[in-house]
Amino acid sequence: MTKRELRGKFQRKLRRLYRQPMIHSLRTDLRIDSCGLLAPDINLAHCNNLRDKEYQLIANSGASVSITPAVEMNMGHGFPVTRELLEYGVRPSLGVDTVNTIEGDMFTQMKLALSIEHALRNQQIFIAGQEPEKLDLTTRDVLEFATIEGARALGLDKKVGTLTPGKEADILLIRYTDLNLTPIIIL
After folding, report:
1. I need a labelling partner for 87 at 20 to 30 A (CA). Which of 48, 113, 154, 179 fits?
2. What are the entry keywords (predicted)?
3. CB–CB of 29/65 below 8 Å?
4. DSSP string for 114-178
5. pLDDT class of 183 with cuts at 50, 70, 90
6. What is the number of other CB atoms lying within 10 angstroms of the CB of residue 130?
7. What are phi and psi of 65, to 5 degrees?
8. Cα 31 from Cα 23, distance rounded (Å)
9. C-beta of residue 83 within 8 angstroms of C-beta of residue 121
10. CA 102 – CA 108 distance, rounded (Å)
11. 8 A C-beta contact, residue 48 and residue 25
12. Confidence of residue 177 (pLDDT cuts 50, 70, 90)
């Protein structure tokens, strides 16, 4: 069976089960690529502990990656690979996995993704004997990971993911004076 035939068979089978196929990936991307299965309509989860070549394969293929900060930190996968993905031009989406043991809300995932990345980056800067001046990853980036990047990963970005005329949206209003949202800076 050729790679093209294998990919077609794989895609047809997955399409019967899922709108957008997802592959849990810790060290399998070379094998997935060798079967011709890395493609823009494939979403990979986690992707911890990959080599540079594997990140490059993901970037070249156009496949999306969902990171799950709470699960990755608590289940021994390692740190989320936000920085590595961004260095290869892959903007991750945020996900929640294993909700019976980990917080299932996206606010926790956004907060963890931002905090972990800032801590890792700041540690590198401190080791180099410098002080952090600017944080590379912003709250806007992380909000996009949870919204439009999630929609792209699922092939739904034409329908949802941004507040755009013609798109569907749920709007959530948050009272910034609640204690769990401090500290907050109002500009």
Report:
1. 154
2. Hydrolase, Metal-binding, Zinc
3. no
4. HHHHHHHHHHHHHHTT------SS-HHHHHHHHTHHHHHHTT-TTTSSS--TTS--------TTS
5. low
6. 10
7. -130, 130
8. 12
9. yes
10. 10
11. no
12. confident
The two structure tokens encoding residue 12: 């047809």
- Dihedral sign from CA coordinates of 83, 89, 95, 97: negative
Q: Which residue has the tokens 């739904």?
A: 156
The domain ranges of the chain are: 3-181
Q: What does the pLDDT read at residue 185?
A: 56
Average pLDDT, the chain: 84
Helix (H) or strand (E) holding 123: helix 106-127
How would you classify residue 94: left for phi > 0, otherwise alpha for psi between -120 and 50, otherwise beta? beta
* Rounded Cα gap, residues 119 and 93, in angstroms: 20
* Residue 135 pLDDT > 70: yes
CA-CA-CA-CA torsion sign (149, 60, 15, 30) = negative
Q: Assess contact for 41 and 21: CB atoms under 8 A.
A: yes
SS3 call for 33 = helix
Q: What is the mean pLDDT of residues 167-181?
A: 82
User: What's the average model confidence in pLDDT over 19-47?
Assistant: 69
Which residue do the tokens 């500290």 mark? 183
Provide the CB-side half-sphere exposure for 175 (13 A, CA).
Answer: 4
CATH architecture type of domain 3-181: Alpha-Beta Barrel (3.20)
